[in-house]
Amino acid sequence: MIGQSPFRIFLAHAVLILGILIVAFPIYYTFVASTQTLQTILRPPLPFWPGDQFWNNYSEALFGGVGRIGGVGVGRLLLNTTIMALGVAVGKIFISILSAYAIVFFRFPLRMTFFWLIFITLMLPVEVRILPTYKVMVDLGMIDTYAGLIIPLIASATATLLFRQFFMTIPGELVEAARVDGAGPWRFFFDILLPLSRTNIAALFVILFIYGWTQYLWPLLVTNSNNMNTIVIALRKMVSFADADTQWHLVMVTAMLAIMPPILIVVLMQRWFVRGLVESEK
Amino acid sequence: MATVDLKDAKKVYSSGVEAVKGVSIAIPDKELCVLVGPSGCGKSTLLRMIAGLETISSGTVAIDGKIVNAVGPAERDIAMVFQNYALYPHMKVYDNMAYGLRNRGTPKDEIDSRVRSTAKVLELSALLDRRPRELSGGQRQRVAMGRAIVRNPKVFLFDEPLSNLDAKLRGQMRVEIKNLQRTLGVTSIYVTHDQLEAMTLADILVVMNAGLVEQIGAPLDIYEAPASTFVASFIGAPPMNLLALTGGLSGPTLADGTAIGFAPADTKAATLGFRPEDADVTFNAKAPSGALVLPATVEAVEPVGAESFLHCAAGGVRIVMRVAGRAAARPGDQLRVVARAEKLHWFDKTGKRVG
What is the pTM (predicted TM-score) of this model? Predict the structure, then answer.
Protein backbone atom coordinates (compact mmCIF):
# COMPACT_ATOMS: atom_id res chain seq x y z
CA MET A 1 0.00 0.00 0.00
CA ILE A 2 2.85 2.35 0.80
CA GLY A 3 4.71 2.04 -2.46
CA GLN A 4 3.50 0.64 -5.76
CA SER A 5 6.70 1.13 -7.73
CA PRO A 6 8.12 -2.09 -9.27
CA PHE A 7 11.29 -1.80 -7.22
CA ARG A 8 9.42 -1.61 -3.95
CA ILE A 9 7.25 -4.55 -4.90
CA PHE A 10 10.36 -6.52 -5.78
CA LEU A 11 12.03 -5.56 -2.52
CA ALA A 12 9.00 -6.50 -0.46
CA HIS A 13 8.77 -9.86 -2.17
CA ALA A 14 12.48 -10.48 -1.83
CA VAL A 15 12.33 -9.92 1.92
CA LEU A 16 9.26 -12.10 2.26
CA ILE A 17 10.73 -14.91 0.18
CA LEU A 18 13.97 -14.80 2.12
CA GLY A 19 12.03 -15.02 5.37
CA ILE A 20 10.01 -17.96 4.12
CA LEU A 21 13.17 -19.75 2.98
CA ILE A 22 14.79 -19.32 6.37
CA VAL A 23 11.72 -20.66 8.14
CA ALA A 24 10.85 -23.37 5.66
CA PHE A 25 14.23 -24.84 4.83
CA PRO A 26 14.73 -26.87 8.03
CA ILE A 27 11.23 -28.23 7.65
CA TYR A 28 11.92 -29.13 4.03
CA TYR A 29 15.15 -30.85 5.05
CA THR A 30 13.30 -32.81 7.70
CA PHE A 31 10.88 -33.91 5.01
CA VAL A 32 13.76 -34.93 2.73
CA ALA A 33 15.33 -36.95 5.51
CA SER A 34 12.02 -38.64 6.21
CA THR A 35 12.01 -40.09 2.69
CA GLN A 36 15.47 -41.64 2.79
CA THR A 37 16.70 -44.91 4.15
CA LEU A 38 18.52 -44.91 7.46
CA GLN A 39 21.76 -45.66 5.66
CA THR A 40 21.49 -42.61 3.44
CA ILE A 41 20.84 -40.38 6.42
CA LEU A 42 23.80 -41.73 8.35
CA ARG A 43 26.15 -41.24 5.40
CA PRO A 44 26.48 -37.48 4.84
CA PRO A 45 25.89 -35.36 2.92
CA LEU A 46 22.13 -35.69 2.94
CA PRO A 47 20.70 -35.43 -0.57
CA PHE A 48 18.86 -32.25 -1.42
CA TRP A 49 15.93 -33.96 -3.12
CA PRO A 50 13.42 -36.35 -1.51
CA GLY A 51 14.26 -40.04 -1.77
CA ASP A 52 12.09 -42.97 -2.73
CA GLN A 53 11.32 -44.30 0.74
CA PHE A 54 8.28 -42.10 1.39
CA TRP A 55 5.66 -44.87 1.50
CA ASN A 56 7.93 -47.32 3.28
CA ASN A 57 8.96 -44.94 6.03
CA TYR A 58 5.56 -43.39 6.61
CA SER A 59 3.64 -46.65 6.66
CA GLU A 60 6.25 -48.25 8.90
CA ALA A 61 6.04 -45.37 11.37
CA LEU A 62 2.27 -45.04 11.29
CA PHE A 63 1.24 -48.67 11.37
CA GLY A 64 4.30 -50.80 12.06
CA GLY A 65 5.19 -49.67 15.53
CA VAL A 66 8.50 -48.15 16.50
CA GLY A 67 10.82 -50.35 18.46
CA ARG A 68 12.37 -47.86 20.80
CA ILE A 69 9.01 -46.71 22.14
CA GLY A 70 7.68 -50.12 22.89
CA GLY A 71 6.35 -50.88 19.46
CA VAL A 72 3.68 -48.20 19.57
CA GLY A 73 2.76 -46.82 16.17
CA VAL A 74 2.87 -43.12 15.41
CA GLY A 75 -0.85 -43.31 14.65
CA ARG A 76 -1.50 -44.05 18.31
CA LEU A 77 0.76 -41.16 19.34
CA LEU A 78 -1.11 -38.80 17.04
CA LEU A 79 -4.40 -39.95 18.51
CA ASN A 80 -3.15 -39.38 22.07
CA THR A 81 -1.82 -35.96 21.26
CA THR A 82 -4.95 -34.97 19.37
CA ILE A 83 -7.15 -35.99 22.28
CA MET A 84 -4.96 -34.08 24.69
CA ALA A 85 -4.67 -30.92 22.56
CA LEU A 86 -8.38 -30.87 21.78
CA GLY A 87 -9.26 -31.59 25.39
CA VAL A 88 -7.03 -28.81 26.67
CA ALA A 89 -8.23 -26.28 24.08
CA VAL A 90 -11.94 -27.06 24.37
CA GLY A 91 -11.76 -27.43 28.14
CA LYS A 92 -9.93 -24.17 28.61
CA ILE A 93 -12.35 -22.27 26.39
CA PHE A 94 -15.35 -23.87 28.09
CA ILE A 95 -14.17 -23.12 31.63
CA SER A 96 -12.89 -19.65 30.93
CA ILE A 97 -15.87 -18.42 28.91
CA LEU A 98 -18.18 -19.54 31.71
CA SER A 99 -16.14 -17.94 34.47
CA ALA A 100 -15.78 -14.72 32.48
CA TYR A 101 -19.54 -14.75 31.90
CA ALA A 102 -20.15 -15.05 35.63
CA ILE A 103 -17.66 -12.36 36.54
CA VAL A 104 -18.84 -9.80 34.00
CA PHE A 105 -22.61 -10.22 33.88
CA PHE A 106 -23.61 -11.34 37.37
CA ARG A 107 -23.51 -9.52 40.66
CA PHE A 108 -22.77 -11.97 43.43
CA PRO A 109 -20.94 -11.74 46.77
CA LEU A 110 -17.14 -11.94 46.56
CA ARG A 111 -17.25 -11.40 42.81
CA MET A 112 -14.06 -9.34 42.81
CA THR A 113 -12.38 -11.77 45.20
CA PHE A 114 -12.94 -14.57 42.72
CA PHE A 115 -11.72 -12.39 39.91
CA TRP A 116 -8.50 -11.64 41.76
CA LEU A 117 -8.03 -15.28 42.75
CA ILE A 118 -8.16 -16.19 39.06
CA PHE A 119 -5.92 -13.30 38.21
CA ILE A 120 -3.29 -14.29 40.78
CA THR A 121 -2.91 -17.75 39.27
CA LEU A 122 -1.47 -16.01 36.22
CA MET A 123 1.63 -15.45 38.28
CA LEU A 124 2.11 -19.16 38.98
CA PRO A 125 3.54 -21.05 36.01
CA VAL A 126 2.67 -24.73 35.66
CA GLU A 127 6.20 -25.71 36.67
CA VAL A 128 5.85 -24.11 40.10
CA ARG A 129 2.89 -26.23 41.08
CA ILE A 130 3.90 -29.32 39.20
CA LEU A 131 4.90 -31.49 42.17
CA PRO A 132 1.70 -30.97 44.18
CA THR A 133 -0.32 -31.44 41.00
CA TYR A 134 1.53 -34.68 40.30
CA LYS A 135 0.82 -35.89 43.84
CA VAL A 136 -2.88 -35.13 43.41
CA MET A 137 -2.94 -37.00 40.09
CA VAL A 138 -1.25 -40.03 41.67
CA ASP A 139 -3.74 -40.03 44.56
CA LEU A 140 -6.65 -39.80 42.17
CA GLY A 141 -5.25 -42.62 40.07
CA MET A 142 -5.03 -40.46 37.01
CA ILE A 143 -1.54 -41.40 35.91
CA ASP A 144 -1.58 -42.76 32.34
CA THR A 145 -5.08 -41.50 31.65
CA TYR A 146 -6.36 -38.85 29.24
CA ALA A 147 -8.03 -37.09 32.16
CA GLY A 148 -4.67 -36.85 33.91
CA LEU A 149 -3.12 -35.40 30.77
CA ILE A 150 -5.86 -32.84 30.24
CA ILE A 151 -7.49 -31.69 33.46
CA PRO A 152 -4.50 -30.08 35.22
CA LEU A 153 -3.87 -27.92 32.16
CA ILE A 154 -7.44 -26.74 31.72
CA ALA A 155 -7.75 -23.89 34.21
CA SER A 156 -6.69 -20.77 32.38
CA ALA A 157 -6.48 -17.29 33.82
CA THR A 158 -5.31 -15.88 30.52
CA ALA A 159 -8.31 -17.07 28.56
CA THR A 160 -10.65 -15.97 31.34
CA LEU A 161 -9.14 -12.48 31.27
CA LEU A 162 -9.36 -12.36 27.51
CA PHE A 163 -13.04 -13.24 27.52
CA ARG A 164 -13.64 -10.83 30.40
CA GLN A 165 -12.11 -7.97 28.42
CA PHE A 166 -14.21 -8.87 25.40
CA PHE A 167 -17.42 -9.20 27.40
CA MET A 168 -16.83 -5.83 28.97
CA THR A 169 -16.92 -4.21 25.53
CA ILE A 170 -20.46 -5.51 24.96
CA PRO A 171 -22.73 -2.52 25.48
CA GLY A 172 -25.05 -2.61 28.46
CA GLU A 173 -27.92 -1.67 26.18
CA LEU A 174 -27.52 -4.95 24.30
CA VAL A 175 -27.84 -6.88 27.54
CA GLU A 176 -30.89 -4.86 28.46
CA ALA A 177 -32.47 -5.28 25.03
CA ALA A 178 -32.10 -9.02 25.45
CA ARG A 179 -33.70 -8.84 28.90
CA VAL A 180 -36.64 -6.88 27.51
CA ASP A 181 -36.87 -9.44 24.69
CA GLY A 182 -37.29 -12.13 27.30
CA ALA A 183 -33.87 -13.77 27.09
CA GLY A 184 -32.82 -15.31 30.39
CA PRO A 185 -29.16 -15.85 31.32
CA TRP A 186 -28.82 -19.05 29.28
CA ARG A 187 -30.56 -17.73 26.23
CA PHE A 188 -28.50 -14.57 26.37
CA PHE A 189 -25.36 -16.68 26.60
CA PHE A 190 -26.19 -18.98 23.71
CA ASP A 191 -28.10 -16.61 21.42
CA ILE A 192 -26.08 -13.43 21.83
CA LEU A 193 -22.82 -13.85 23.69
CA LEU A 194 -21.57 -17.04 22.07
CA PRO A 195 -22.15 -15.91 18.46
CA LEU A 196 -20.51 -12.59 19.22
CA SER A 197 -17.50 -14.37 20.75
CA ARG A 198 -17.07 -16.60 17.69
CA THR A 199 -13.91 -15.00 16.39
CA ASN A 200 -12.41 -14.74 19.87
CA ILE A 201 -13.08 -18.42 20.43
CA ALA A 202 -11.52 -19.32 17.08
CA ALA A 203 -8.40 -17.32 17.83
CA LEU A 204 -8.08 -18.81 21.30
CA PHE A 205 -8.68 -22.29 19.97
CA VAL A 206 -5.73 -22.05 17.61
CA ILE A 207 -3.43 -20.76 20.33
CA LEU A 208 -4.59 -23.28 22.92
CA PHE A 209 -4.54 -26.23 20.55
CA ILE A 210 -0.92 -25.57 19.74
CA TYR A 211 -0.21 -25.00 23.42
CA GLY A 212 -1.72 -28.40 24.20
CA TRP A 213 0.01 -30.09 21.26
CA THR A 214 3.46 -28.94 22.25
CA GLN A 215 3.21 -29.69 25.98
CA TYR A 216 6.33 -31.49 27.13
CA LEU A 217 6.92 -31.46 30.87
CA TRP A 218 3.47 -32.46 32.06
CA PRO A 219 2.92 -35.40 29.66
CA LEU A 220 6.43 -36.56 30.46
CA LEU A 221 5.56 -36.78 34.16
CA VAL A 222 2.05 -38.09 34.01
CA THR A 223 2.49 -40.85 31.42
CA ASN A 224 4.55 -43.93 32.07
CA SER A 225 3.07 -46.36 29.59
CA ASN A 226 4.30 -46.02 26.01
CA ASN A 227 0.71 -46.38 24.94
CA MET A 228 -0.21 -43.08 26.52
CA ASN A 229 2.73 -41.04 25.27
CA THR A 230 2.15 -37.91 23.29
CA ILE A 231 4.06 -37.48 20.06
CA VAL A 232 6.46 -34.92 21.51
CA ILE A 233 7.46 -37.27 24.34
CA ALA A 234 7.77 -40.22 21.97
CA LEU A 235 9.94 -38.19 19.64
CA ARG A 236 12.30 -37.53 22.52
CA LYS A 237 12.30 -41.21 23.52
CA MET A 238 13.08 -42.30 19.96
CA VAL A 239 16.34 -40.44 19.93
CA SER A 240 19.08 -42.47 21.55
CA PHE A 241 22.44 -41.14 22.59
CA ALA A 242 24.16 -43.68 20.44
CA ASP A 243 23.73 -42.43 16.90
CA ALA A 244 23.62 -45.85 15.33
CA ASP A 245 20.87 -46.95 17.62
CA THR A 246 18.52 -44.20 16.50
CA GLN A 247 16.21 -44.86 13.59
CA TRP A 248 16.63 -41.43 12.15
CA HIS A 249 14.36 -41.96 9.17
CA LEU A 250 11.49 -42.78 11.55
CA VAL A 251 12.39 -39.89 13.83
CA MET A 252 12.12 -37.59 10.83
CA VAL A 253 8.78 -39.07 9.84
CA THR A 254 7.50 -38.60 13.37
CA ALA A 255 8.75 -35.03 13.43
CA MET A 256 6.97 -34.32 10.15
CA LEU A 257 3.78 -35.88 11.46
CA ALA A 258 4.10 -33.97 14.73
CA ILE A 259 4.14 -30.59 13.04
CA MET A 260 1.41 -31.29 10.51
CA PRO A 261 -1.68 -30.94 12.76
CA PRO A 262 -0.71 -27.54 14.24
CA ILE A 263 0.06 -26.30 10.73
CA LEU A 264 -3.26 -27.59 9.46
CA ILE A 265 -5.12 -25.94 12.33
CA VAL A 266 -3.45 -22.61 11.65
CA VAL A 267 -4.05 -22.82 7.90
CA LEU A 268 -7.67 -23.86 8.24
CA MET A 269 -8.57 -21.49 11.04
CA GLN A 270 -6.77 -18.59 9.41
CA ARG A 271 -9.75 -18.12 7.11
CA TRP A 272 -11.87 -17.71 10.21
CA PHE A 273 -9.52 -15.10 11.59
CA VAL A 274 -9.56 -13.06 8.43
CA ARG A 275 -13.31 -13.27 8.09
CA GLY A 276 -13.67 -12.26 11.71
CA LEU A 277 -11.40 -9.29 11.25
CA VAL A 278 -13.01 -8.10 8.02
CA GLU A 279 -16.49 -8.50 9.41
CA SER A 280 -15.63 -6.71 12.64
CA GLU A 281 -19.13 -6.38 13.93
CA LYS A 282 -20.06 -3.22 15.70
CA MET B 1 -54.28 -0.66 25.77
CA ALA B 2 -52.73 0.21 29.10
CA THR B 3 -52.26 2.93 31.65
CA VAL B 4 -49.03 3.55 33.50
CA ASP B 5 -49.16 4.83 37.06
CA LEU B 6 -46.17 5.87 39.11
CA LYS B 7 -46.73 6.52 42.79
CA ASP B 8 -43.94 8.20 44.71
CA ALA B 9 -41.38 6.11 42.83
CA LYS B 10 -37.87 6.48 44.24
CA LYS B 11 -34.49 5.19 43.19
CA VAL B 12 -31.59 5.19 45.61
CA TYR B 13 -28.40 3.57 44.38
CA SER B 14 -26.33 1.45 46.74
CA SER B 15 -23.79 4.26 46.75
CA GLY B 16 -26.45 6.42 48.44
CA VAL B 17 -27.06 8.60 45.40
CA GLU B 18 -30.72 9.46 45.03
CA ALA B 19 -31.44 9.47 41.31
CA VAL B 20 -35.23 9.68 41.49
CA LYS B 21 -36.64 11.31 44.59
CA GLY B 22 -40.29 10.40 44.56
CA VAL B 23 -42.15 10.78 41.27
CA SER B 24 -45.88 10.36 40.74
CA ILE B 25 -47.24 10.39 37.21
CA ALA B 26 -50.47 8.96 35.84
CA ILE B 27 -50.39 8.26 32.12
CA PRO B 28 -53.78 7.53 30.55
CA ASP B 29 -54.28 4.87 27.92
CA LYS B 30 -52.93 5.54 24.41
CA GLU B 31 -51.20 8.78 25.36
CA LEU B 32 -47.61 9.69 24.67
CA CYS B 33 -45.85 10.96 27.76
CA VAL B 34 -42.52 12.72 27.33
CA LEU B 35 -40.04 12.94 30.17
CA VAL B 36 -37.78 15.89 29.55
CA GLY B 37 -34.99 17.41 31.57
CA PRO B 38 -31.29 18.13 31.56
CA SER B 39 -28.83 15.23 31.76
CA GLY B 40 -28.65 13.75 35.22
CA CYS B 41 -32.20 14.73 36.15
CA GLY B 42 -33.24 11.08 36.58
CA LYS B 43 -35.46 10.79 33.51
CA SER B 44 -33.62 7.82 32.04
CA THR B 45 -33.45 6.11 35.43
CA LEU B 46 -37.19 6.56 35.77
CA LEU B 47 -37.77 5.05 32.34
CA ARG B 48 -35.55 2.10 33.22
CA MET B 49 -37.51 1.63 36.43
CA ILE B 50 -40.68 1.42 34.37
CA ALA B 51 -38.94 -1.03 32.05
CA GLY B 52 -37.82 -3.17 34.97
CA LEU B 53 -34.14 -2.71 34.20
CA GLU B 54 -33.64 -0.85 37.50
CA THR B 55 -35.12 -1.94 40.78
CA ILE B 56 -37.55 0.43 42.48
CA SER B 57 -36.29 1.53 45.89
CA SER B 58 -39.70 2.62 47.14
CA GLY B 59 -43.07 3.61 45.76
CA THR B 60 -44.88 1.67 43.04
CA VAL B 61 -45.00 1.35 39.27
CA ALA B 62 -48.25 -0.02 37.89
CA ILE B 63 -48.89 -1.02 34.29
CA ASP B 64 -52.53 -1.49 33.37
CA GLY B 65 -53.50 -1.24 37.02
CA LYS B 66 -51.19 -4.04 38.12
CA ILE B 67 -48.22 -3.21 40.31
CA VAL B 68 -45.13 -4.53 38.56
CA ASN B 69 -42.37 -3.67 41.06
CA ALA B 70 -41.35 -7.32 41.37
CA VAL B 71 -42.00 -8.29 37.75
CA GLY B 72 -39.08 -8.81 35.35
CA PRO B 73 -38.75 -6.70 32.20
CA ALA B 74 -39.81 -9.51 29.90
CA GLU B 75 -43.05 -10.13 31.79
CA ARG B 76 -44.08 -6.48 31.96
CA ASP B 77 -45.17 -6.56 28.34
CA ILE B 78 -43.23 -3.48 27.41
CA ALA B 79 -40.93 -2.82 24.47
CA MET B 80 -38.02 -0.45 24.55
CA VAL B 81 -36.18 1.52 21.91
CA PHE B 82 -32.65 2.30 23.03
CA GLN B 83 -30.51 5.31 22.33
CA ASN B 84 -27.87 3.29 20.48
CA TYR B 85 -30.56 0.96 19.12
CA ALA B 86 -28.96 -2.11 20.76
CA LEU B 87 -29.58 -4.29 17.71
CA TYR B 88 -28.08 -7.76 17.90
CA PRO B 89 -25.08 -7.34 15.58
CA HIS B 90 -24.88 -10.98 14.49
CA MET B 91 -28.54 -11.31 13.59
CA LYS B 92 -30.28 -10.29 10.39
CA VAL B 93 -32.93 -7.61 10.59
CA TYR B 94 -35.58 -10.30 10.42
CA ASP B 95 -34.11 -12.19 13.37
CA ASN B 96 -33.61 -9.01 15.33
CA MET B 97 -37.31 -8.37 15.07
CA ALA B 98 -38.33 -11.98 15.61
CA TYR B 99 -36.09 -12.69 18.60
CA GLY B 100 -38.44 -11.39 21.29
CA LEU B 101 -41.38 -13.27 19.78
CA ARG B 102 -39.39 -16.49 19.58
CA ASN B 103 -38.46 -16.23 23.25
CA ARG B 104 -42.15 -15.89 23.98
CA GLY B 105 -42.92 -19.08 22.14
CA THR B 106 -44.98 -17.44 19.42
CA PRO B 107 -45.76 -19.89 16.58
CA LYS B 108 -43.43 -19.63 13.61
CA ASP B 109 -45.95 -18.58 10.97
CA GLU B 110 -47.37 -15.91 13.25
CA ILE B 111 -43.87 -14.53 13.85
CA ASP B 112 -43.33 -14.47 10.12
CA SER B 113 -46.54 -12.61 9.33
CA ARG B 114 -46.03 -10.12 12.14
CA VAL B 115 -42.42 -9.39 11.22
CA ARG B 116 -43.33 -8.93 7.57
CA SER B 117 -46.29 -6.68 8.20
CA THR B 118 -44.31 -4.54 10.65
CA ALA B 119 -41.45 -4.34 8.17
CA LYS B 120 -43.92 -3.15 5.57
CA VAL B 121 -45.20 -0.36 7.81
CA LEU B 122 -41.64 0.78 8.50
CA GLU B 123 -40.49 0.29 4.90
CA LEU B 124 -37.95 -2.31 5.98
CA SER B 125 -39.17 -5.13 3.75
CA ALA B 126 -36.18 -4.92 1.43
CA LEU B 127 -33.72 -4.96 4.33
CA LEU B 128 -34.88 -8.04 6.21
CA ASP B 129 -31.85 -10.09 5.15
CA ARG B 130 -29.29 -7.46 6.03
CA ARG B 131 -27.27 -7.29 9.19
CA PRO B 132 -27.28 -4.16 11.35
CA ARG B 133 -23.79 -3.08 10.25
CA GLU B 134 -25.01 -2.90 6.64
CA LEU B 135 -27.68 -0.36 7.55
CA SER B 136 -27.56 3.42 7.84
CA GLY B 137 -28.28 5.14 11.12
CA GLY B 138 -31.84 5.92 10.12
CA GLN B 139 -32.49 2.35 9.01
CA ARG B 140 -31.09 0.98 12.26
CA GLN B 141 -33.40 3.30 14.09
CA ARG B 142 -36.32 1.88 12.14
CA VAL B 143 -35.28 -1.66 12.94
CA ALA B 144 -35.13 -0.77 16.62
CA MET B 145 -38.64 0.65 16.31
CA GLY B 146 -39.75 -2.43 14.41
CA ARG B 147 -38.39 -4.71 17.09
CA ALA B 148 -40.56 -2.86 19.59
CA ILE B 149 -43.69 -2.67 17.41
CA VAL B 150 -43.65 -6.30 16.33
CA ARG B 151 -44.07 -7.40 19.93
CA ASN B 152 -47.36 -5.52 20.14
CA PRO B 153 -46.69 -4.56 23.76
CA LYS B 154 -48.81 -2.68 26.26
CA VAL B 155 -46.30 0.14 26.56
CA PHE B 156 -43.53 1.56 24.36
CA LEU B 157 -40.52 3.02 26.08
CA PHE B 158 -38.23 5.30 24.11
CA ASP B 159 -34.84 6.26 25.56
CA GLU B 160 -33.64 9.24 23.52
CA PRO B 161 -34.14 7.29 20.31
CA LEU B 162 -33.35 10.13 17.94
CA SER B 163 -30.24 11.58 19.53
CA ASN B 164 -27.89 9.71 17.19
CA LEU B 165 -29.52 10.92 13.99
CA ASP B 166 -28.71 14.04 12.04
CA ALA B 167 -31.04 17.03 12.37
CA LYS B 168 -33.03 16.44 9.19
CA LEU B 169 -33.64 12.77 9.82
CA ARG B 170 -34.50 13.55 13.41
CA GLY B 171 -37.27 15.85 12.27
CA GLN B 172 -38.64 13.19 9.92
CA MET B 173 -38.51 10.42 12.48
CA ARG B 174 -40.16 12.65 15.06
CA VAL B 175 -43.21 13.03 12.89
CA GLU B 176 -43.15 9.35 12.03
CA ILE B 177 -42.98 8.25 15.65
CA LYS B 178 -45.88 10.50 16.49
CA ASN B 179 -47.97 9.12 13.63
CA LEU B 180 -47.10 5.51 14.42
CA GLN B 181 -47.90 5.99 18.07
CA ARG B 182 -51.24 7.48 17.17
CA THR B 183 -52.23 4.81 14.65
CA LEU B 184 -51.07 1.96 16.88
CA GLY B 185 -52.68 3.56 19.91
CA VAL B 186 -50.04 2.24 22.31
CA THR B 187 -49.31 4.05 25.55
CA SER B 188 -45.78 5.41 25.25
CA ILE B 189 -43.16 6.99 27.41
CA TYR B 190 -40.46 8.94 25.66
CA VAL B 191 -37.32 10.31 27.27
CA THR B 192 -35.45 13.19 25.70
CA HIS B 193 -33.36 16.18 26.63
CA ASP B 194 -34.46 18.03 23.53
CA GLN B 195 -37.24 20.44 24.40
CA LEU B 196 -38.34 20.71 20.76
CA GLU B 197 -38.90 16.94 20.56
CA ALA B 198 -40.66 17.11 23.90
CA MET B 199 -43.01 19.89 22.84
CA THR B 200 -43.91 18.40 19.49
CA LEU B 201 -44.38 14.78 20.56
CA ALA B 202 -46.00 14.95 23.94
CA ASP B 203 -49.61 14.51 24.89
CA ILE B 204 -48.41 14.82 28.45
CA LEU B 205 -45.17 16.58 29.14
CA VAL B 206 -43.24 15.89 32.33
CA VAL B 207 -40.41 18.30 33.07
CA MET B 208 -37.90 16.81 35.48
CA ASN B 209 -35.06 18.36 37.41
CA ALA B 210 -32.72 16.84 39.99
CA GLY B 211 -34.78 13.68 40.45
CA LEU B 212 -38.08 15.50 40.93
CA VAL B 213 -40.96 16.44 38.67
CA GLU B 214 -41.06 20.19 38.12
CA GLN B 215 -44.28 20.26 36.15
CA ILE B 216 -46.73 17.93 34.42
CA GLY B 217 -49.18 19.08 31.81
CA ALA B 218 -50.02 19.56 28.16
CA PRO B 219 -47.02 21.01 26.32
CA LEU B 220 -48.64 24.31 25.46
CA ASP B 221 -50.04 24.75 28.97
CA ILE B 222 -46.55 24.31 30.31
CA TYR B 223 -45.20 26.70 27.73
CA GLU B 224 -47.74 29.33 28.59
CA ALA B 225 -47.63 28.92 32.35
CA PRO B 226 -44.35 27.40 33.47
CA ALA B 227 -44.53 26.38 37.12
CA SER B 228 -41.00 27.50 37.95
CA THR B 229 -38.05 29.44 36.63
CA PHE B 230 -36.44 26.10 35.80
CA VAL B 231 -39.30 25.07 33.52
CA ALA B 232 -39.47 28.60 32.09
CA SER B 233 -35.83 28.47 31.07
CA PHE B 234 -35.87 24.83 29.94
CA ILE B 235 -38.97 24.80 27.75
CA GLY B 236 -38.86 27.14 24.78
CA ALA B 237 -35.99 28.08 22.52
CA PRO B 238 -34.67 30.63 23.02
CA PRO B 239 -35.66 30.33 26.69
CA MET B 240 -37.77 32.78 28.64
CA ASN B 241 -36.05 35.98 29.69
CA LEU B 242 -35.78 36.08 33.45
CA LEU B 243 -35.00 39.25 35.37
CA ALA B 244 -34.40 39.27 39.11
CA LEU B 245 -36.22 41.91 41.16
CA THR B 246 -35.03 43.74 44.23
CA GLY B 247 -37.41 45.64 46.44
CA GLY B 248 -36.62 49.38 46.06
CA LEU B 249 -38.19 52.28 47.99
CA SER B 250 -40.45 53.14 45.11
CA GLY B 251 -41.40 49.57 44.18
CA PRO B 252 -39.38 46.66 42.70
CA THR B 253 -36.31 47.41 40.62
CA LEU B 254 -34.20 45.32 38.24
CA ALA B 255 -30.56 44.42 38.76
CA ASP B 256 -29.34 47.65 37.14
CA GLY B 257 -31.66 49.81 39.27
CA THR B 258 -34.39 50.38 36.68
CA ALA B 259 -37.76 50.65 38.42
CA ILE B 260 -40.35 48.50 36.71
CA GLY B 261 -42.92 51.18 37.30
CA PHE B 262 -45.88 49.11 38.41
CA ALA B 263 -46.79 46.58 41.09
CA PRO B 264 -46.04 42.91 40.39
CA ALA B 265 -48.87 40.42 40.29
CA ASP B 266 -47.88 39.05 43.68
CA THR B 267 -46.10 40.58 46.64
CA LYS B 268 -43.73 37.63 46.91
CA ALA B 269 -42.50 38.02 43.32
CA ALA B 270 -38.72 37.95 43.12
CA THR B 271 -38.25 37.26 39.40
CA LEU B 272 -40.15 38.39 36.37
CA GLY B 273 -40.05 36.71 33.02
CA PHE B 274 -41.34 37.08 29.50
CA ARG B 275 -41.04 34.98 26.37
CA PRO B 276 -38.81 36.31 23.58
CA GLU B 277 -41.86 36.65 21.32
CA ASP B 278 -44.10 38.22 23.96
CA ALA B 279 -42.46 41.63 23.93
CA ASP B 280 -42.23 44.21 21.21
CA VAL B 281 -39.04 45.81 20.13
CA THR B 282 -39.45 49.45 19.29
CA PHE B 283 -37.31 52.49 18.61
CA ASN B 284 -40.29 54.60 19.69
CA ALA B 285 -39.75 56.44 22.98
CA LYS B 286 -43.42 56.53 23.83
CA ALA B 287 -44.46 53.66 26.02
CA PRO B 288 -47.95 52.32 26.70
CA SER B 289 -49.02 52.34 30.33
CA GLY B 290 -49.22 49.12 32.31
CA ALA B 291 -46.34 47.61 30.39
CA LEU B 292 -42.77 46.77 31.23
CA VAL B 293 -40.51 49.10 29.29
CA LEU B 294 -36.82 48.26 29.19
CA PRO B 295 -34.16 50.31 27.49
CA ALA B 296 -31.95 47.78 25.73
CA THR B 297 -28.72 47.72 23.75
CA VAL B 298 -28.47 45.23 20.90
CA GLU B 299 -25.38 43.03 21.30
CA ALA B 300 -25.88 40.49 18.55
CA VAL B 301 -28.35 39.66 15.82
CA GLU B 302 -29.02 36.06 14.73
CA PRO B 303 -31.08 35.83 11.58
CA VAL B 304 -32.55 32.35 11.07
CA GLY B 305 -34.73 33.15 8.07
CA ALA B 306 -38.34 33.36 9.12
CA GLU B 307 -37.35 35.18 12.27
CA SER B 308 -34.39 36.82 13.92
CA PHE B 309 -33.10 36.69 17.45
CA LEU B 310 -31.85 39.89 19.04
CA HIS B 311 -29.49 39.42 21.94
CA CYS B 312 -29.70 42.57 24.04
CA ALA B 313 -28.36 43.89 27.31
CA ALA B 314 -31.30 45.14 29.36
CA GLY B 315 -32.08 45.48 33.04
CA GLY B 316 -28.57 44.39 33.94
CA VAL B 317 -28.83 40.99 32.23
CA ARG B 318 -28.82 39.56 28.72
CA ILE B 319 -32.17 38.96 27.14
CA VAL B 320 -33.19 37.48 23.81
CA MET B 321 -35.95 38.90 21.64
CA ARG B 322 -37.65 37.12 18.77
CA VAL B 323 -38.73 39.32 15.87
CA ALA B 324 -40.33 38.24 12.63
CA GLY B 325 -38.38 38.30 9.37
CA ARG B 326 -35.29 40.43 9.01
CA ALA B 327 -34.33 42.48 12.02
CA ALA B 328 -33.99 46.20 11.42
CA ALA B 329 -31.66 46.52 14.40
CA ARG B 330 -27.88 46.34 14.23
CA PRO B 331 -25.47 45.54 17.06
CA GLY B 332 -24.99 48.65 19.16
CA ASP B 333 -28.46 50.04 18.51
CA GLN B 334 -30.39 51.44 21.45
CA LEU B 335 -34.01 50.39 21.57
CA ARG B 336 -36.87 49.65 23.89
CA VAL B 337 -38.38 46.34 24.82
CA VAL B 338 -42.05 46.62 25.68
CA ALA B 339 -43.79 43.71 27.36
CA ARG B 340 -47.44 44.03 28.25
CA ALA B 341 -48.29 43.18 31.85
CA GLU B 342 -50.51 40.20 31.03
CA LYS B 343 -47.63 38.58 29.17
CA LEU B 344 -45.35 38.70 32.20
CA HIS B 345 -44.62 35.69 34.39
CA TRP B 346 -43.82 36.10 38.08
CA PHE B 347 -41.78 33.79 40.26
CA ASP B 348 -40.98 33.90 43.99
CA LYS B 349 -37.61 33.60 45.70
CA THR B 350 -37.56 29.78 45.41
CA GLY B 351 -38.33 30.03 41.71
CA LYS B 352 -41.99 28.96 42.03
CA ARG B 353 -44.62 30.64 39.90
CA VAL B 354 -46.76 33.23 41.70
CA GLY B 355 -49.66 35.37 40.57
Answer: 0.81
